[in-house]
Amino acid sequence: KQEVTQIPAALSVPEGENLVLNCSFTDSAIYNLQWFRQDPGKGLTSLLLIQSSQREQTSGRLNASLDKSSGRSTLYIAASQPGDSATYLCAVRRINDYKLSFGAGTTVTVRA
Amino acid sequence: DTGVSQDPRHKITKRGQNVTFRCDPISEHNRLYWYRQTLGQGPEFLTYFQNEAQLEKSRLLSDRFSAERPKGSFSTLEIQRTEQGDSAMYLCASSPNLGGVYEQYFGPGTRLTVT
Fold it and tell me: How many CB pairs under 8 A join A and B?
């Protein structure tokens, strides 16, 4: 069974600071990994998807890296803004599977 | 492309009642998924469809739960004889088949409260 862990569970930073969010998974036989954002009481918004053959993926201020052999992914958010306050979830899809296995998320607060 | 939609957004019901939720996927997405999320946790997989065929069900999906996707378009999730432990956010997602990637796009969710 794939176990996905996100540490820390919560993070509070001043505006402008760079954010580093960690995700680890136990089974390295993954097909891809997705990072999502979730605002309170809302659904999930896909931020980035990294294929298992890729090392990183970038979108604007967001950069996600993947080290499949060590079972880790990191989401970097540059120059954080109060609007970045949300819960960030990572999810992995195993090879020959279609469902996602999620971590519990990291709740980020960016203080103005 | 209007995104994945879910109806209703909120549902309050009394224990023992039946409830039904609807999900409309992004058009032409052939795969549709249901997840359940409780407070402070990540979503947990319930079931998924490829077109109208239900291909996998989680052990979380007890006999009180049933899902359908007639004609491979919208899907419904029914919970019979609801229990307080069924209180959660029910999320629907859909994905296209683009080179086998199957990136999942989520709807806004249905918040169920069982009193």
Answer: 58
